[in-house]
Amino acid sequence: MDTRTRALDLARHYLQTLGFNGFSFQTIADSLGIRKASLHYYFASKEDLGIALLEEYRKAYEEWTASVAKLSAHKKLEQMFKIFYKMSLDNNKICPAGGLSADFNSLSAKMKKRLLEFHTIQRNWLIETLTQGVQEKSLKKNLAIEETADLILASIQGGVQIARMRGEAQSFKASSKNLLASISA
Predict the structure, then answer these.
(1) Are 129 and 77 within 8 A, CB to CB?
(2) Cα–Cα distance, 161 to 138 (Å, whole number)
(3) Is 45 helix (H, G, I), strand (E, B) or coil?
(4) pLDDT tens digits for 102-128?
(5) What is the residue extent of each domain of the chain?
(6) Side-chain half-sphere of 84: how many Cα atoms within 13 Å?
(7) Of the candidates 86, 85, 83, 113, which has an alpha carbon nearest to the alpha carbon of residue 100?
(8) Which candidate in 6, 25, 163, 178 could, as Cys together with 88 as Cys, close a disulfide (CB 3.0–4.6 Å)?
């Protein structure tokens, strides 16, 4: 694995366990056993590292949505909840977007813009999936689609944070199951 990839992997780990402001370029350099100046060869700044992370997350998310595109809406939502549950099982990690959102006010304008773009991609996918579910009659017909998309996003972000605080992932699994049941037809 090359140094750039290893640096991104470490940054991803630190973001999901400590938050974006919880680590520095020096933290990553030390973990890699290289000088901080050497890390600047790959990323001009921590902002550039954060933008690279967001780009990777966006790409991975788009690949995931393509992989579940042919599933029913109900199955898509189950799969999404499963991803967050697994994340919570992995050392009580939180969603990268959630980690960045907690540090939103201290992010650069460029990072804020990229994070909002990523959030919009997730929200739009949920709106499409919820609309599909209503059309398939697997979700309640009177569902307020956009508000429910926001409710789901808030629930998964908050759910993994509560699971972290409690030191267990089962609360996330139970709450996501109840959320899906509450919107199902």
Answers:
(1) yes
(2) 29
(3) coil
(4) 899 999 999 999 999 999 999 999 999
(5) 50-183
(6) 31
(7) 113
(8) 163
